[in-house]
Design brief:
Blueprint (H helix, E strand, L loop, with lengths): L2 E4 L6 E6 L2 E6 L12 H15 L8 H8 L2 H10 L2 H15 L12 H8 L6 H6 L9 H15 L5 H9 L10 H10 L3 H23 L6 E2 L8 E9 L2 E8 L5 E5 L5 E6 L8 E3 L4 E9 L7 E8 L5 E3 L6 E6 L5 E6 L7 E6 L5 E6 L5 E8 L2 E8 L2 E8 L2 E9 L3 E7 L2 E6 L6 E5 L6 E3 L8 E5 L5 E8 L2 E8 L7 E2 L47 E5 L2 E4 L1 H5 L6 E4 L1 E7 L5 E11 L4 E11 L5 E9 L4 E10 L2 E10 L5 E9 L2 E2 L5 E19 L3 E17 L11 E10 L10 E11 L6 E11 L21 H7 L4 E13 L11 E18 L4 E18 L6 E11 L8 E9 L2
Parallel strand pairs: 1-3, 5-27, 36-40
Antiparallel strand pairs: 2-3, 4-27, 5-6, 6-7, 7-8, 9-10, 10-11, 11-12, 13-14, 14-15, 15-16, 17-18, 18-19, 19-20, 21-22, 22-23, 23-24, 24-28, 25-26, 26-27, 29-32, 30-31, 32-33, 33-34, 34-35, 35-38, 36-37, 38-40, 39-40, 40-41, 41-42, 42-43, 43-44, 44-45, 45-46, 46-47, 47-48, 48-49
């Protein structure tokens, strides 16, 4: 299995893919709230489990299917028999079982379930898995872990995963469907729904007993309240005695807000999703944070830059193209400390000039030590760091670090200073509480006591109150506690860790026997140069369907157009994912006979411009275009005619080059896409001489789009503009070249889940010729099938179209009655209207269409674990040709892969 390391991205992740087979590891460690385990150990443990999970496809009868479909078989089989929640839940269970930490030993991993169960929000598996428009739903990693770890713990079945795979080969082929339900029934003796309910009841009971054992709890009052949709307040800080935090939710993107003592919220600035905690500085009146920003061109290269804002809310960039995380101002505000993760690996503490942003000092951490956060106590700098022994707090001493607190396998995060002490959040008791560390005597005390735990703890400047966020089923809101109402500080002993629900029960026979002593180690192959050319074409899958897509429109958030037809497609891709392509065959019914088309397409993104090329050959003969003059008693007119040239196939070749430039930050996606395209065929045009039919086009698109929250169909705001030119060399005096301007934009609707999309396009000829030729589609969307109308309006010099769409979800049914075959989440309606205007000096024409799309939104359909929209589209066409029905009905079917 090829393993590809990506050190240039500032994000942390990993993926195991099967089309083609490979493991990709993003090697930069997590800087915000890391687990108490080295990143590379956690990453390899989790991703290696995914490799093991898919080994069953190499056995009969799945191996036979692989001969027929290639590596596409693995993806299809995994969707039918396993699915993402199984894979990720089992992998989280494995990382928890095999390591000292893992997400199963983190209070924050299942914190929403803890809050929801406490409030009586008890859903079935399918509702937790596929989500809801009305209720917040965590990602499927969590419900997968509850299911997989719960079966092993509640039903004392440490080999549940092995039993699941064994059942796939127990003579049930070729229809071993509903394997999860069958395995659960065999192990528990209950239906899947009832077994999952018992697992959740067991988990709720253990949490209830744990809460009772930790009582009593500190009193508090709410500062913010639940909104109509799930909203959370995180990353609190004070600056000039004013509380700031980040607010975001399922219908609103993150924003920096300020909150007064009465709970009134005021917007300050838009914010990004991937940021560090806020740190305020009263000296320079700044709020600092770090933010992951993409490279201008390369998708797998990104940076972590430091930003700050002042009272006016204007964002200022402190660093550019750096790898600096978690900035913290010193006590006097003149120096900013930050964590650096170089591209070459390792970590370092950097001390930066607060005015110039240059590096004053750089202290490299020793090998095996990953610095996370830093904080100042006077002139001393302290850091949290991860080593093979877990998390701890270290003090900068000369050119190195000395450990002052060993936190072991406890999760520690959100370091800040208060009253000469270091404060931080830790889950020592099984929930996130506030702790303090006194550098003078080394004592560690627990300061808070809450039933569900909290986060973003901050004392106000005079120390009279403590603000923190608390999670409930309706949101993560801020609460306030007077410091004189806090419980008496309790000594904390980090050597005695919490026994997490399910986690300790995972250490069983499923781990397998220990390796025999003296077992020789496998030799590690010496590194060899990677041949880009030798691995450029790697065919991995094939399918009995013809597939096409437009990557540029997808990238700019306009639309995603996927075309499927009768035929076959073979896919190839190199390991680096810079070369992708297909060899395809398509068969379609023609007017007199079937049309057969062969096609080769590829995209290479390893150069600065992305290169796309395609070649197709068709059984339809090429055409010969010529001018035809017809005379009458009143004069003559010239038309453009064509005839097929029988006895030969037609071919078309196209080359496209574009540069997808990006400049995204602050919750806004920005991009610039220049594009050049040339197509040529063996159809000819004759007018004095023969010339091949070809077209050259050039365009420039720019877009600025706000990030889209999960419960919205469209972003709240955004705009995209494109201008372009298209023409046919060697036929300029016959067919006009044209220029066009296209724009689209987004606006909020009447409710927070509603959205408006507007677009406009206009094209005009740029040369004098006998005939106008359309380049962009300008007919109303319901009239695409009127071929005669398209030919008629093509003669108008000015062609325009305006569209308006109003989209909104409704009826959050969350119906799981057909699970696992289908899950009906809600419905969506899109009202749309198109207006087209055509003009020349002698005539003008208006066409329009109005209608709606009505879709059912399914969380899955037929074991495909992706959002699927199924519905109907209707247009009433105003100005339809005589003899044609003005009504258009179409089917809507879309799978969001």
């Amino acid at each position: 299995l090829p393993v590809i390391l990506h050190p240039w991205t500032a994000n942390s992740n990993g993926v195991v893919a099967w089309t083609p087979r490979r493991m990709e590891l993003l090697t930069t460690p997590t800087a915000v709230a890391p687990m108490p385990q080295p990143w590379e150990e956690h990453l390899v443990t989790h991703e290696s489990r995914h490799v093991a999970q898919m080994q069953f496809v190499n056995e009969k009868p799945y191996r036979i299917a692989s001969w027929l479909l290639g590596e596409l078989t693995a993806g299809a089989v995994s969707a039918i028999y396993c699915g993402p929640s199984f894979f990720e839940g089992d992998a989280v269970a494995a990382e928890t079982e095999l390591g000292p930490s893992g997400r199963g030993r983190s209070a924050s991993f299942l914190e929403y379930y803890r809050a929801a169960f406490r409030e009586g929000d008890l859903r079935n598996y399918w509702r937790w898995r596929y989500g809801s428009l009305k209720y917040y739903t965590p990602d499927y990693y969590k419900v997968g872990y509850i299911t997989m770890a719960g079966m092993r713990s509640v039903y004392d079945c440490p080999d549940f995963t092995a039993r699941y795979y064994e059942r796939l080969f127990r003579g049930k082929w070729p229809l071993p469907f509903f394997n999860m339900q069958g395995t659960v029934k065999e192990v528990s003796g209950k239906r899947f729904r009832d077994a999952f309910t018992e697992i959740c009841d067991t988990l709720q009971g253990r949490w209830t007993r744990d809460e009772a054992a930790r009582a009593p709890f500190m009193p508090s009052r709410p500062l913010t309240f639940d909104s109509r949709h799930f909203t959370e307040y995180t990353s609190s800080c004070y600056m000039d005695s004013v509380l700031y935090c980040v607010r975001g939710g399922t219908t609103s993107p993150p924003r920096l807000v300020r909150i007064d003592s009465s709970g009134k919220v005021s917007r300050v600035a838009p914010f990004a999703y991937s940021t560090s905690s806020l740190k305020g500085d009263d000296n320079l009146r700044r709020i600092y944070w770090s933010e992951v920003t993409p490279d201008a061109r390369w998708e797998l290269k990104s940076y972590s830059e430091i930003w700050y804002t002042k009272m006016d809310g204007r964002r200022q960039r402190f660093s550019r193209r750096t790898r600096w995380y978690n900035p913290t101002p010193s006590s006097n505000g003149l120096v900013v400390s930050a964590t650096e993760y170089p591209f070459s690996g390792g970590s370092a503490l950097v001390l930066l000039d607060a005015f110039k942003g240059n590096v004053l000092r750089r202290i490299k951490a020793p090998d095996g030590m990953q610095i996370s956060e830093s904080e100042w106590i006077g002139e001393d700098v302290y850091v949290t760091a991860v080593t093979s022994g877990g998390l701890g707090i270290w003090r900068l001493a000369g050119d190195g670090f000395e450990q002052v607190l060993d936190c072991g396998s406890v999760n520690v995060k959100d370091l800040f200073r208060h009253g000469g002490e270091l404060c931080f959040t830790a889950d020592l008791t099984g929930v996130d509480e506030l702790y303090s560390f006194d550098p003078n005597d080394g004592k560690v005390m627990r300061l808070s006591s809450s039933p569900k735990g909290g986060g973003s703890y901050r004392f106000n400047p005079d120390g009279s109150t403590l603000v923190f966020s608390e999670l409930s089923s309706g949101g993560r809101n801020l609460r306030v506690t007077r410091t004189d109402s806090l419980p008496a500080p309790a000594a904390a002993e980090f050597s005695r860790t919490h026994r997490y629900e399910f986690a300790e029960d995972l250490r069983g026979p499923d781990a397998g026997p220990a390796a025999p002593a003296g077992l020789p180690k496998e030799a590690v192959q010496s590194p060899l140069p990677y041949s880009r050319l030798g691995h450029l074409f790697r065919f991995h899958s094939w399918a009995p369907v013809y597939v096409d897509y437009d990557a540029i429109e997808d990238m700019s958030f306009e639309t995603l157009t996927t075309t499927a037809g009768l035929g076959a497609t073979a896919f190839f891709q190199n390991h680096l994912n810079t070369m992708t392509g297909v060899v395809a065959y398509n068969a379609a019914p023609g007017k007199d006979a079937w049309t057969h088309t062969g096609e080769v397409r590829f995209t290479y993104s390893g150069f600065y411009p992305v290169i796309e090329a395609n070649f197709s050959i068709s059984s339809v003969p090429p055409s010969l275009y010529f001018l035809k003059t017809q005379f009458s008693d009143f004069g003559y007119y010239v038309s453009l005619s064509s005839e097929q040239m029988p006895g030969r196939p037609s071919f078309n070749t196209g080359f496209t080059a574009y540069v997808p430039l990006r400049s995204s930050s602050g919750g806004w996606y920005r991009g610039l896409v220049p594009q050049l395209k040339w197509t040529i065929s063996n159809s000819f045009f004759t007018h004095g001489s023969f010339a091949p039919m070809n077209r050259v086009s050039a365009s420039l698109r720019a877009y600025v789009i706000e990030s889209t929250p999960p419960a919205r169909i469209y972003p709240r705001f955004g705009i995209g503009l494109e201008g372009g030119w298209s023409g046919r060399p060697w036929a300029q005096n016959i067919l006009t070249s044209c220029a066009y301007v296209y724009g689209y934009g987004y606006l909020p609707g009447f409710m927070d889940t509603h959205g408006i999309r507007l677009s406009a396009i206009a094209q005009v000829p740029t040369s004098d010729a006998l005939f106008n030729e359309r380049y962009a589609a300008v007919l109303p969307r319901g009239m695409a099938g009127y071929a005669s109308m398209a030919n008629r309006v093509a003669s108008y010099p000015l062609q325009t179209r305006f569209t308006a769409d109003y989209a909104f979800p409704f009826a959050p049914l969350d119906w799981s009655g057909m699970g696992p075959v289908a899950y009906l989440r809600n419905f969506e309606c899109t009202l749309h209207g198109d207006y087209s205007y055509f003009y020349d000096r002698r005539d003008q024409k208006v066409l329009a269409s109005v209608g709606a799309d009505l879709c059912a939104v399914l969380g899955n359909l037929l074991w495909i674990p992706e959002d699927t929209r199924v519905g109907v589209s209707y247009y009433y066409n105003i100005g339809a040709p005589a003899g044609e029905s003005p009504h258009y009905w179409g089917a809507v079917f879309n799978v969001s892969f």
